[in-house]
Amino acid sequence: MSACKSAFTLRRELGMFLAGLACTLATVGLAQAQAQPQTQVWPAHPVKLISPWPAGGSNDTFSRLIATRLTTTLGQPVIVENRPGASGTLGVSQVARSPADGYTLVMGSSPTHATALSIYPQLSYHPLKDFAPVTLVGSSANGLVVHPSVPANSVAELIALAKARPGKLSYASTGSGSSQHLSAELFKVMTGVDMLHVPYKGAAPAVSDIVAGHVNLGFHNLVDVLPHVKAGTLRLLAVTSAQRTKALPDTPTIAEAGVPGYMAEVWFGVFAPAKTPRPLIDRLHREISAALAEPEIRARFDASGMDVVGSGPDAFARYVQEEITKWSDIVRRADVKPN
């Protein structure tokens, strides 16, 4: 009798297990079926790529290069929208609150996703928790440039001049916490010089005022200053990267020019709002990587001094975390405050 009961109990438990398994599989299948239409038809209408800086700067330039190519490969317009303000954090915060459907992206950078968290106590977004990293587009050196009226033809001469005139030399940046700002602050910390910070709301007005002689110098992205260097309206002393750039093989790094260990780079990468479906993130990564491999686009990046990366979403997330850790220490040491 007990054996019969055991067999009956076994059959009942097996039946309940199979029923539960069937229910689970059906639920998973339903979820997949519901998710597939979203990813299969995407994009069904135009995609926005937010550039959180003014038009004409490097972020805007790189955003438009990628958007033009994606418009062709995705079959829908990819529209670049400039939403500047608060050192890029204004436009980024708006994207953080956007639907996670793949239709709103942002060209983030080291100021918005590596340093802002340390500088702004009330930052309205978290660089990683509120975003899904898509790909690290590339990284670039800033160029240390001076107005031709500044009597310094090398980094060593600039340091000597700044020490002879403490607080008198001024440098332009694109805002507190920007790569231009922190490149200069790192320079100040490592050389012991005192220079006046003049923040602007973008690269174009900052560089324009250096060219006009209203500000003495700046640490600016090469794409923003090279035309002026070639025209002779700015003098390039060095680059901020660890190695010399391919675009300027004869220009020394700041480390080579007398500040051992100095290194500061600006990077750009595409982010989507957190919880964007992974299939959309993976497709975006593939499409952007293909765009970066196009000879014409690669040539434009190379000419600007940008080293193309195109890393995957997971590697990009790890890189952002490493950058947050690195720059938080520099922000603390330089006592960087918001504008």
TrEMBL record:
What is the designated name of this protein? Tripartite-type tricarboxylate transporter receptor subunit TctC
Keywords in alphabetical order: Receptor, Signal
Q: State the family it belongs to.
A: Belongs to the UPF0065 (bug) family.
Q: Which organism is it from?
A: Ottowia thiooxydans
Quote the Pfam families the UniProt record gives.
TctC (PF03401)
Q: Where does the record locate the signal sequence feature?
A: 1-33
